[in-house]
């Protein structure tokens, strides 16, 4: 056996216009290339023209009247950069002369395509000449090579002359000789041009838009490179456009098809044409950030182990829909062919298609088409024989991209719900199972991406917990993310294990946390009165702490009222609110008898039980016509919810009240629970202020509760400052009212944990399950709302590498699940203590004795010393 010589291990680096326009950027190029060469790779650097130069050359090639002046401006620009780089400007002298000759020669008048290509090619030739001279002057072993000697344009059968010169494809069937000749170039590192290739007539050819990415991809493919690195000024591809969705995630790994789809439908970081050569040659692509090379970037390869799920959503505006009423011709042989022939004749390339018995609707993507009213009128005339045309524009195409879209449809209910208010003109699911597109009116698209992105994450359709695919959020990268602080129980393991030893299931509360949250709210100046919604957690110690901290208590039943008066000695009735829903009438009578503040939300009660209400003061709860919340079941505004009086019934309520001599002194709205937009309360407050003005007798405006907490590791803490600022602003507009709030969750959720003991660990068909001695009976939230609670194995905090377990309870229902695919120590075993975090709100109160299992126990872990 004779040994075959090791082929060179090439790596291709591509830098765009902004990366080659300044000296320090060239230093970065030199450093990155040098590092790779030091690791034993041969390096090929592909560069674009300086930023803006291709646009200037395009104008010249298209016959700009001031071509000569533009050329001189370009010359000045390159000479200035040469000086900045410490080079003699003569290095670009010859090339600038070529450009000057091009604009003065006779062809300039006719502007044939071959001449245009020569003009356009000069930008890259200039930038690469400067760069190679500079890098060599820095002592780096860099050689310059002319990309046209290596990339050969090929004519494709359906290309017109323009495309054959100015948007070419290149040969990819090079032989070993090509490779060895390329490798024989003497320098360790080579610098070449993107965007240009050799035409078969020996002149220049242009690769078209995104050409530099495509050049790098061709070179990578031809050289069988280890990787093609596309260096840009963004961290990589994201799950959505970060400008619209600041929480978009960096996509750290995609397969070629997904990447291609994402590039085609939105992201501009990589040109879609660049994917194919690398895909066919099996060369990975990496998108990296020149300013932040330490970030993981996006790696694109053909790995078979890609995770199914939605990876990205994108939006394209300016889409034109052409809807054709087909008058019964549909399904006749050749009908579609005739229609599409018309589109072809008018130079229109069709993107999406939807069809029914009598209608065919297609979309025209503005980036591929020149759609003018003129063209459409002519198309319509042409098609008049076979169908009636309707143009719907402007539209937005919202696309979900990811592998395995078909098997995800059941996860997309939130996405469908997002579209409930918009008119969806067309839905298209590609048969490659990678893309699902909705076309809606452009006017409806604003804000939608954010909503869909949230919905996809909440439903699990976008599997952001897959660390191999989803990287940090854009906001996190930009340093704008506020981190969830360490949780109290992380330092209290021994105490919690000792408590668990006294019996589980058991809730444990830390009163210091309750006090800390209470003080955070007390610090909010705009709020005059604070009540705790005791339904979240009526534990006596918690109520006492909150009353000590100056909170009143909000109750919703006679039971809650009796409870607060029995456990908080000396409680002032005026500090208690009674805000029931559809309660039996004697509970109102009971509340009046106790002297607490009663809130009513309908006219019917006044009419039916006048004697209960006559002469009383009441608060009125209104429904502002919409709601919000962490789950549909906790949204308490809008027609679908049973709470609140619609605003257009306020007059009727006031009439009925006047007839009974009832004074309406407070105005209340609570539109949902777990609302994470701080603006929500500002808006509620503003609207209530407006209504209060019309009523006249109001002294207090109550904007409800609903403040969220960060349940998930990557949830941000609620932005209390933004919340407070919003309230202060509205308060200033309505200085005459006292402002009240009545949160529950925010005050107590994080103070409580649920301690459970693992009962059995079972593997079934590849799924590991750990059972606990409490499930939906002890904590209903996961079953009822798909709510997330972190789950930890307290007994084994060093239990080795985590593996995924479904955490289930002992109840005979399949919904008895506390968490799916949770990372727990591989050695998790019966007897281990499991901690379910953030269970202090709506935990114990909603526990039940289903299957006749005992209610959980409760302990207060820390007696506050203050
Ligand atoms: N005010 C009224 C009139 C309410 O109905 C509620 C909660 C609150 C205040 C307090 O809302 P909070 O600040 O806690 O969001 N069981 C569900 C939550 C249901 C909330 C019911 N009403 C859960 O576990 O998420």
Automatic annotation (TrEMBL):
All copies of domain Orn/DAP/Arg decarboxylase 2 N-terminal, residue ranges: 514-749
Residue ranges annotated for the Aspartate/glutamate/uridylate kinase domain, each copy included: 10-289
Pathway(s) the chain acts in: Amino-acid biosynthesis; L-threonine biosynthesis; L-threonine from L-aspartate: step 1/5; Amino-acid biosynthesis; L-lysine biosynthesis via DAP pathway; (S)-tetrahydrodipicolinate from L-aspartate: step 1/4; Amino-acid biosynthesis; L-methionine biosynthesis via de novo pathway; L-homoserine from L-aspartate: step 1/3
GO molecular function: aspartate kinase activity; diaminopimelate decarboxylase activity
Superkingdom in the source lineage: Bacteria
PROSITE patterns: ASPARTOKINASE, ODR_DC_2_1, ODR_DC_2_2
Alphabetized UniProt keyword annotations: Amino-acid biosynthesis, ATP-binding, Decarboxylase, Kinase, Lyase, Nucleotide-binding, Pyridoxal phosphate, Transferase
Reported cofactor(s): pyridoxal 5'-phosphate
E.C. code: 2.7.2.4
NCBIfam families assigned to the protein according to its UniProt record, in alphabetical order: asp_kinases, PRK08961.1
PANTHER family for this protein: DIAMINOPIMELATE DECARBOXYLASE, GROUP IV DECARBOXYLASE
Protein's name according to its UniProt entry: aspartate kinase
Native source species: Luteimonas padinae
């Amino acid at each position: 056996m004779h040994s075959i010589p090791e082929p060179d291990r090439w790596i291709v680096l591509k830098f765009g216009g902004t990366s080659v326009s300044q000296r320090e950027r060239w230093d970065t190029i030199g450093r990155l290339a040098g590092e790779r060469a030091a690791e034993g790779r041969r390096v090929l650097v592909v560069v674009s023209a300086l930023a803006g130069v291709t646009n200037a050359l395009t104008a010249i090639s298209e016959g700009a009247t001031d071509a000569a002046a533009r050329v001189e401006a370009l010359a000045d620009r390159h000479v200035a950069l040469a000086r900045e780089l410490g080079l003699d400007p003569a290095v670009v002298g010859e090339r600038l002369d070529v450009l000057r000759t091009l604009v003065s020669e006779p062809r300039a008048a006719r502007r044939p395509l071959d001449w245009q290509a020569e003009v356009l090619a000069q930008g890259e030739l200039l930038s690469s000449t400067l760069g190679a001279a500079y890098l060599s002057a820095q002592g780096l072993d860099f050689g310059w090579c002319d990309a046209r000697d290596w990339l050969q344009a090929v004519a494709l059968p359906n290309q017109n002359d323009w495309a054959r010169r100015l948007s070419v494809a290149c040969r990819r069937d090079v032989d070993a000789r090509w490779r060895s000749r390329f490798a024989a170039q003497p320098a360790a590192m080579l610098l070449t041009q993107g965007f240009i290739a050799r035409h078969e007539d020996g002149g220049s050819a242009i690769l078209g838009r995104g050409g530099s990415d495509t050049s790098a991809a061709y070179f990578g493919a031809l050289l069988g490179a280890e990787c093609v690195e596309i260096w840009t000024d963004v961290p990589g591809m994201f799950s959505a456009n970060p400008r619209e969705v600041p929480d978009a995630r960096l996509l750290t790994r995609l397969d070629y098809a997904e990447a291609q789809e994402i590039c085609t439908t939105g992201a501009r970081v990589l040109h879609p044409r660049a994917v194919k050569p690398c895909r066919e040659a099996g060369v990975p692509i990496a998108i990296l950030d020149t300013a932040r090379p330490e970030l993981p970037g996006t790696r694109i390869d053909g790995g078979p182990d890609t995770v199914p799920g939605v990876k990205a959503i994108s939006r394209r505006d300016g889409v034109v829909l052409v809807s054709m009423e087909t008058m019964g011709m549909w399904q006749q042989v050749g009908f579609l062919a005739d229609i599409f022939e018309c589109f072809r004749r008018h130079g229109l390339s069709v993107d999406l298609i939807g069809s029914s018995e009598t209608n065919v609707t297609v979309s025209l993507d503005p980036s591929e088409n020149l759609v003018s009213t003129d063209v459409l009128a002519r198309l319509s005339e042409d098609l008049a024989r076979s169908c009636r045309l309707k143009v719907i524009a402007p539209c937005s195409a919202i696309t979900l991209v990811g592998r395995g879209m078909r098997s995800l449809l059941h996860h997309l209910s939130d996405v469908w719900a997002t579209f409930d208010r918009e008119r969806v003109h067309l839905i298209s699911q590609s048969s490659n199972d990678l893309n699902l597109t909705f076309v809606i009116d452009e006017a409806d698209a604003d804000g939608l991406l954010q909503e869909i992105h949230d919905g996809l994450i909440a439903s699990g359709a976008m599997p952001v917990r897959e660390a191999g695919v989803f990287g940090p959020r854009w906001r996190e990268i930009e340093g704008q993310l506020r981190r969830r602080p360490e949780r109290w129980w992380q330092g209290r393991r021994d105490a919690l294990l000792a408590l668990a030893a006294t019996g589980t299931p058991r809730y444990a509360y830390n009163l210091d946390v309750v006090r800390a949250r209470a003080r955070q709210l007390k610090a909010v100046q705009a709020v005059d009165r604070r009540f705790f919604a005791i339904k979240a957690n009526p534990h006596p110690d918690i109520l006492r702490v909150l009353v000590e901290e100056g909170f009143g208590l909000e109750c919703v039943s006679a039971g809650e009222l009796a409870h607060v008066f029995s456990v908080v000695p000396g409680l002032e009735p005026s500090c208690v609110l009674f805000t029931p829903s559809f309660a039996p009438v004697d509970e109102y009578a009971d509340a009046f008898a106790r002297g607490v503040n009663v809130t009513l939300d309908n006219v019917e009660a006044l009419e039916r039980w006048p004697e209960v209400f006559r002469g009383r003061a009441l608060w009125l709860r209104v429904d502002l016509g919409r709601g919000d919340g962490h789950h549909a079941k906790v949204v308490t505004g809008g027609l679908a919810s049973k709470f609140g009086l619609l605003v257009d019934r306020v007059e009727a309520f006031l009439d009925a009240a006047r007839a009974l001599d009832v004074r309406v002194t407070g105005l209340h709205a609570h539109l949902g629970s777990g609302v994470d937009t701080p603006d929500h309360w500002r808006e509620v407050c503003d609207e209530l202020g407006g209504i209060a003005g019309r009523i006249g007798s109001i002294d207090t405006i109550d904007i409800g509760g609903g403040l969220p907490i960060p349940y998930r590791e990557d949830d941000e803490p609620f932005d209390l400052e933004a919340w407070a600022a919003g309230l202060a602003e509205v308060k200033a507009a309505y200085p005459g009212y006292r402002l009240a709030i009545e949160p529950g969750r925010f005050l107590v959720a994080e103070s409580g944990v649920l301690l459970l003991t693992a009962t059995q660990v079972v593997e079934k068909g590849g799924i590991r399950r750990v059972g606990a001695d409490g499930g939906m009976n002890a904590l209903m939230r996961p079953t009822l709302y798909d709510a997330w609670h972190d789950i930890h194995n307290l007994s084994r905090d060093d239990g080795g590498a985590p593996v995924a377990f479904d955490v289930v309870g002992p109840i005979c229902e399949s919904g008895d699940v506390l968490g799916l695919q949770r990372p727990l120590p591989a050695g998790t075993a019966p007897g281990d203590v499991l901690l379910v975090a953030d269970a202090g709100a709506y935990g114990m109160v909603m526990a039940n004795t289903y299957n006749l299992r005992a209610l959980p126990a409760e302990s207060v872990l820390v007696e506050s010393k203050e």
